[in-house]
Amino acid sequence: MPHSLRIAVLASGRGSNLAALLAARDRGELAAQFVLVASDKAGAGALHLAGEAGIPTLALDPKAYPDRRAFDLALFAHLAASGAELIVLAGFMRILDGQALAPWAGRILNIHPSLLPKYRGLHTHRRALEAGDLEHGASVHFVTAELDGGPVIAQATLPIEPGEDEQRLAQRLLPLEHRLLPATVALIAQGRLGWRDGVPTFDGKPLAEPLRLGTHGLQPA
Ligand code: GRF
Would the CB of 90 count as within 6 Å of ligand 1? Predict the structure, then answer.
């Protein structure tokens, strides 16, 4: 049997990106085994979803720790103990400590709803509209200590429609996120996307530009 990548997911919210990963696995498009879904919010929809799917879950309350680093070190100790080979942040709404992240360099990804390097942080849809951008999108990047600042590996773009509001734009982007994240993780599971000396690689060569999501999946730009 081919190796299936052991994945842990961190999520703070409803978990639709987690659901998309599980659906891709169920369709046979993602050779993965989900070993843990963890959250900083005990009531997160993502935890509920994971429980229903029979995946081990963990809720850790940041208020139970003296500071951010203590929380992050505890969280990452659980992640290491889960046997995860890859950590996917799917709507995890906390900034992570550099010391906790260091051992995971190149093995931790985030999905962010903007065309990075544009609009790191919050309210990305509103900011794209306010700037009068003609297109918006989502990015998957390797996580570093810099918020939404790690190397971008894959992007999906969406034309902005005249007169649309923040909610509608977010709603139209979400289905693209649900294709982008599983497709990116699948390439990692296949060993095609990787990380060497701080640089993302694709088919063994440094990745100069993020892969682009098209009708036939992810392609080099
Ligand atoms: C997504 O828009 C993701 O890009 C952002 O947070 C949202 C999470 O949504 N980082 P969900 O919890 O996966 O439904």
Answer: yes
